[in-house]
Design brief:
The complex is a heterotrimer of chains A (323), B (280) and C (361). Chain A has 323 residues and is mainly alpha-helical. Chain A has helices at residues 2-5, 15-43, 64-71, 74-104, 113-125, 128-138, 144-151, 165-193, 197-205, 210-221, 223-238, 242-247, 261-270, 274-299, 303-312, 316-321; strands spanning 46-51, 54-60. In chain A, strands 1-2 form a two-stranded antiparallel sheet. In chain A, α2 (15-43) crosses α14, α3 (64-71) crosses α14 and α4 (74-104) packs across α8 (165-193). Chain A is flat, with a radius of gyration of 26 Å. The two termini of chain A are 42 Å apart. The chains are: A mainly alpha (323), B mainly alpha (280), C alpha+beta (361). The interface between A and C is medium-sized, with 16 and 25 residues.
């Protein structure tokens, strides 16, 4: 063909711009996340801590840190974290589903939707540490809440919220609930409103009661978002730190029953026990990595969908413009 | 048949909503009341009406020798502002790179970012401190700002927004019009992305304004500290000796600016939250 | 000064799909050429290769006498009008039009002059300060044209520019663009899937299918002498009828037989097809109900399945000898559906195609 007797001609390529534009992101990621992560994993196999002013190590100790980790109170803290998360998450998802169903129900005609949305989302933007400090002040033994309860005659004497396991855990759960239920409600509402209205009309014509519509149409349709909310909330739960840390001044009192995994990690980091901190981090990382994978498969199309997308790629322009 | 149950459900819905609204607002109400009252008044009991010690409390907080509140606000502002700028600009740039160009590593790069989308930064905190120390950035604000360049969640938002609002035809039109690629991004793409940039800038700002875990590990000098650390310091001080008016005032200073911005922009923020989790 | 030449151009996408296998095409300076074909035929890709938005896998592309393969779009001295207009939503009409000029550092006076000139021709003067959102579809279309005009390019590329407009506006813009071409006297390359647009606008039309040029000729020639079945079927509306006919030797030539019909044509080329089947193409308007066209054997008594009254004429959907046909006859001759009608084909205007190669005989 023509190619044989004519010199190969250069073509225009924009690929280099693609690389250039994504470079800062990846450089920053490598420097501030990937290298640190590698170091974290690396040092988790070393005895490496500071005792007074002397630095011990780093000496390789194999899996000793992990053995020590599982012999320590790690599992208790894991349990604490799960309990605190569940105690906040269960009411959160129930209330959010309820609100999302109500807000999107045309029959209910709730007025002031925008106002309620603004109000319930607000706690999410509040500085968690300040929020915890506020709760600490409000629920302290002679704080306003106790004073009010006593003066109303509900309690004989002040309830020591922060000395009771249920009281402290309850406060952490309440704060987590307040901070996150608005966010979840808005996400679920958006998902419900994404369902074609004709589907609800069809359900109504088929004789579905509002409850049946909710369980048989709405819930199955918003399942992907529910999964997303569940997993991201799990990851958030694992990261739980600010609220219990400030509320209990880092002690996890009473008797370390509200010490979370990150508080435990923080203690090791503060006392500069890098080996143990590394081991805690690695366990956390493995759990998070599994959850990340779940998010990925939840957000990305299955094999079947992908095939359809591939076919469409022959005409990329038309696709992109329809939006 | 359906009139009555609907009516009852409406009443129940309103009752629940009012309870939730009360829960959300009540604590802030006490906060605002108490920051206007003196320590003695607060100890005396709860009041529904504001006191007259706002200015006094404010002055006490600002001029506390042990608690550098003013520099705390300044540091928090610096970190949050730069984080907001870096996170939105570079996320948009990255999203554009993956959206508008075809190259060999395009798909792996995208999959990689999607995989780390919700990975918490805490898991690498130990190594992070190590790396920061070696780079001589311990006890400076840089390690709180620079990592914002790689913000996967912001990237994902920008990418989704481009898919719905940035036709590639526009990029091609700019190309034919003689614009180079970088100029196209700055002069054509960024203006179109304005709504997305604004929403994400607010989120990034708030997130960093509220951030406690990493700054507490990295900032050691009193003069470098950000607001959340000051609150933690307040918590660990001997509480019985503390002026409660000051405590409430500091909390107010940490929370109220965000609430004001939120109320002013609530329409966009709530819409932005709704977009955040939804695909496409 | 700016003809466009494709020499053995191949376009293969990264995923290995070849959309243009071997393109040779010569567009003359100042010509209005329409690339037409069904979707996926490679016409848009061809246009985008001229623009430089799509790279060329192999072969050569010349604009004027300059090799363009490796030249960036901005240096090709072309302007393009996109299907969805691609107006910058954040800029006013004026700024949209001057965007390219600013980048090219054209002096302010000159910029103003050109915008005024384009706005005047297109009737855009009242809208210069508006943003695209505040314009109607037709106005946006004209802004897109204006943005191309102010560049004073050597070549105008238009990619289905009218497909988003409603039918009435489309007809109006069609004539506007034709006039614009006459006025500007530059080369226009226009892509469409609509054969009416192609026929009414192009000096020459390039019919494409699967990345291969089927025929490149003037509208009249395409219509009168389609070189294969595809072109014959693509050009003309309603579509040409294709009838399988048996070739038999007859007095004064060869007879084309289908049903009871035996039409004798004087075409010596048919010698090779004696006893075989050929495809006989008859345009709907070449069926006649008038007696003077009836000849011996050239009358068919067809059943009317459906009739569409168009005003001055009528489309009859016929069934004859197991084949579906369309005839376009003056309304006064038309009969109603479920009746029979006698029709004859205009012998002079019958097109014949090889059944195997699909080429015209």
């Amino acid at each position: 063909m023509a190619r044989k007797n004519k010199p190969e001609v250069k073509e225009i390529s924009y690929a280099k711009w693609g690389y250039l534009f994504i470079a800062p992101f990846f450089i920053a990621f490598v420097v501030f996340q990937l290298v640190p992560l590698a170091q974290t994993v690396y040092y988790s196999f070393f005895e490496y801590y500071r005792s007074g002013l002397t630095v011990i190590g780093p000496t390789p100790v194999g899996l000793d840190n992990y053995k020590e980790l599982f012999n320590s109170d790690f599992l208790k803290y894991f349990g604490n974290t799960v309990i605190l998360w569940l105690a906040g998450f269960i009411p959160q998802i129930v209330v959010s589903l309820l609100l999302a169903a109500w807000f999107t129900d045309v029959r209910l005609k709730i007025k002031g939707k925008q106002f309620f949305k603004v109000v319930i989302y607000m706690p999410n933007l509040i500085m968690a540490s300040a929020f915890a400090m506020l709760f600490f002040a409000l629920f302290s033994n002679n704080g306003p809440v106790n004073a009010t309860l006593v003066s109303l005659g509900i309690l004989d004497h002040p309830f020591r919220f922060l000395s009771s396991v249920a009281g402290t855990r309850g406060l952490v759960a309440l704060m987590n609930f307040l901070m996150w239920f608005g966010n979840t409600t808005i996400l679920l509402m958006a998902a419900v409103m994404g369902i074609s209205p004709s589907l609800f009309e069809a359900a109504e014509l088929d004789g579905c009661s509002p409850r049946q519509t909710f369980f048989r149409v709405t819930l199955p349709m918003i399942r992907p978002i529910l999964v997303y909310v569940l997993i991201t909330s799990m990851i958030g739960g694992l990261q739980m730190f600010d609220v219990p840390q400030i509320l209990t001044n880092g002690k996890g009192s009473p008797d370390r029953t509200v010490t979370t995994l990150i508080m435990y990690l923080n203690n090791h980091l503060f006392s500069k026990n890098y080996g143990m901190a590394g081991a805690v981090s690695v366990v956390l990382f493995v759990i998070c990595a599994i959850l990340c994978l779940l998010v990925y498969f939840n957000l990305n199309p299955t094999e079947n969908d992908r095939k359809i997308k591939k076919r469409d790629r022959f005409k990329p322009r038309k696709e992109a413009l329809n939006g | 048949m359906d009139k009555k149950p609907s009516h009852a459900r409406t009443v129940i819905a309103y009752i629940v909503l009012i309870i939730l609204t009360f829960l959300c607002l009540f604590f802030f109400y006490i906060l605002l009341i108490n920051c206007t009252r003196s320590h003695a008044q607060i100890q005396h009991g709860f009041s529904a009406l504001p006191g007259s010690s706002f200015a006094k409390n404010f002055n006490n907080v600002i001029h506390d020798a042990k608690l550098p509140v003013l520099s705390g606000i300044k540091n928090s502002l610096i970190v949050s502002t730069f984080c907001a700028i870096l996170a939105t600009y570079f996320s948009a740039l990255t999203a554009y790179g993956l959206y508008a160009y075809n190259f060999k590593l395009k798909k792996p790069a995208f999959i990689f970012i999607m995989l780390i989308l919700v990975m918490p930064t805490q898991v690498s905190a130990m190594g992070f401190i190590n790396v920061i120390t070696k780079m001589g950035m311990l006890n400076t604000l840089y390690p709180l700002i620079l990592p914002s360049i790689a913000a996967p969640a912001v990237f994902y938002f920008m990418y989704s927004y481009m898919q719905s609002s940035l036709p590639l035809e526009l990029v091609e039109a700019a190309r034919v019009d003689g614009s180079n690629e970088f100029m196209t991004f700055n002069r054509v793409v960024l203006p179109i992305m304005k709504p997305a940039l604004a929403v994400q800038a607010i989120f990034a700002f708030v997130q960093n304004w509220n951030n406690y875990f990493l700054p507490a590990l990295i900032l050691q000098d009193n003069s470098k500290r950000t607001l959340p650390i000051l609150i933690a310091m307040l918590r660990s001080a001997d509480f019985l000796k503390f002026d409660m008016g000051k405590v409430y005032m500091l909390i107010t200073l940490a929370i109220v600016p965000i609430i004001i911005v939120y109320i002013a922009l609530s329409k966009y923020i709530v819409a932005g939250v709704a977009l955040g989790g939804v695909k496409e | 000064m700016a003809g466009i030449t494709f020499k053995n151009v191949v376009k293969t996408y990264d995923n290995g799909v070849t959309v243009v296998p071997d393109l040779n095409l010569e567009i003359k300076d100042k010509e209005f050429v329409v690339l037409v074909g069904p979707s996926g035929c490679g016409k848009s890709t061809t246009l985008r290769m001229i623009a430089g938005l799509e790279s060329i896998t192999s072969g050569e592309l010349y604009i004027g006498d300059k090799l363009m393969n490796a030249v960036a779009p901005k240096n090709r001295n072309i302007a393009m009008v996109f299907q969805n207009y691609a107006l910058y939503p954040h800029l006013t009409v004026y700024k949209n039009m001057t965007f390219a000029l600013e980048l090219a550092k054209v002096p302010k006076d000159e910029m103003n002059r050109r915008v005024q000139w384009a706005a005047e021709i297109l009737g855009l003067e009242p809208y210069l300060d508006r943003k695209p959102k505040a314009l109607s579809g037709g106005q946006r279309q004209r802004v897109a044209l204006g943005r191309a005009m102010v560049r004073e390019p050597e070549v105008f590329l238009l990619d289905e520019p009218l497909s988003n407009l409603d039918a009435k506006l489309r007809t109006e813009m069609r004539s506007q663009i034709t006039k614009l071409h006459k006025k500007l006297g530059t080369t226009f390359v226009y892509v469409t899937h609509d054969q009416t647009e192609a026929m009414t606008m192009g000096d020459r039309i390039c019919v494409m299918k699967d990345g291969v040029i089927q025929q490149f000729d003037t509208p009249q020639n395409l219509y009168d002498h389609p070189c294969n079945l595809f072109v014959a079927g693509f050009i003309g509306s309603p579509q040409m009828n294709f009838i399988d006919a048996q070739v038999k030797k007859a007095d004064g030539g060869y007879a084309l037989c289908f049903g009871d019909v035996e039409i004798v044509v004087n075409k010596p080329e048919l010698a090779a097809y004696e006893g075989k089947t050929v495809v006989c193409g008859i345009r709907p308007e070449d069926f006649h109900a008038e007696q003077q066209f009836f000849g011996s054997g050239n009358v068919m008594n067809a059943y009317i399945d459906l009739d569409e009254m168009m005003g001055s004429e009528s489309y009859l959907y016929l069934e004859y000898a197991g084949q579906k046909l369309i005839a376009r006859v003056p309304a006064r001759y038309a009969k109603k559906a479920e009746e029979n009608i006698e029709l004859a084909a205009d012998v002079e205007k019958i097109h014949l195609f090889d059944k195997e190669t699909e080429l015209a005989i």
